[in-house]
Design a protein that fits this description.
The chain is α+β, with helices and mostly antiparallel strands and 110 residues long. It is 61% helix and 13% strand. Strands 1-3-2 form a 3-stranded antiparallel β-sheet. Helix 1 packs antiparallel against helix 4 and helix 1 crosses helix 5. The two termini are 22 Å apart.
Length: 110
């Protein structure tokens, strides 16, 4: 991942509604949610939600797929993985034991 991609992803998450959307989509992996359902669950107007989803997609954090009349959105876990690895790539100056608590914290969730 390059700096520009990381900045786009972090910028997409740097807003309350978009962060809520991403966390909601992570909870609904691997099935995802329809755009209207995301808007309903977060009590956000659909046109506003559409803009938020577009920003998250451009940041590489959500994927969309059309299913008949609905668009299903999913968290892009590969994008999240790339962002996380980018952030910790040079962690602890080559002392992996210092990163062990971080890795241990991430392991149970997946």
């Amino acid at each position: 991942m390059e700096n520009d991609s990381a900045i786009a992803a972090l910028g997409a998450l740097a807003q309350g509604t978009r962060l809520d959307v991403f966390r909601l989509l992570v909870r609904h992996e691997p099935d995802g949610l329809a755009a209207g359902e995301i808007a309903r669950q977060l009590d956000v107007p659909q046109n506003t939600m559409s803009a938020h989803l577009g920003i998250l997609a451009r940041g590489g954090l959500v994927l969309s797929e059309r299913h008949s009349r609905s668009i299903i959105y999913r968290a892009n876990l590969d994008g999240l993985r790339a962002l996380t690895l980018f952030l910790v790539k040079d962690c602890c100056a080559g002392s992996p034991e210092l990163c062990a608590p971080l890795l241990a914290e991430l392991t149970p969730c997946c």
